[in-house]
Amino acid sequence: MRRLAVAGALLAALTLTPARPTRAQPALPDVLPKEYACMKAHTKYGAKLVTGTTNCVKKCLNLYWKGLAPESDCMPPYGGATLDCVVGSAHFKFGLALQEYCVTGPGADCPECYSGACSETQLQDTVATYAGQVDSFVPGVFCERAGAEHFEQKCQVNAGRAIAKQFLYSTNCYTRCFRNARSGGDVATCMPTATDPDLIACLQKSRIKAAATINKYCDDFVYAGAIPDCGSYPSGGEWATLVDYWVDGIIPPTFCAS
Known about the structure:
This protein is mainly alpha-helical and about 260 residues long.
């Protein structure tokens, strides 16, 4: 089935995370406040790369569907104004944040468990990894471009928006859990698979909201013909599960023990 093929391809792409130790956890005193700030910057600004790239693609597709941009500009490796938007804005801002919080900013401190991942080359590799992961979603989410009717366009655009928001909210859930645990709790409860009850509730809320949004706009019973004609388009719950895998894959190597 197309649905299973999409899921398998995305899961394969999401395994391409930076090779860092996954030993837990970012607890005091091993991980100092500035080291933890570097870790937070990875997830905070990595999420902004995801939302920024998605917005660039949506703008391009809206132009394409109006006959104002070529389709190739909207898909990885992008082109034209979309390439400038993705690389010049989303990628650049992520790299700049990593430099500030992990290398050159006031008191910046790269965690020892990153094993040199704060060198210029490694910072670029981190940006490329996040970029490659979001790019793996783009062709599957926006799978029907030529010939897409109005409601099919709305389904895909809102699915992309929901996926990016889930990534952002879910990474925030983890960051909040680590922050609270570092003040006297057990940071191990914040590592995937999470056991902290507040974190579990936060992730569940993020997942449910994303799935509901996708299902709302990709419902053939509400909007006739809304589901894209590119095989069996994943449901909201299936997209949300893929984002869960994505987020859970980046947390251990990011919030490691220094």
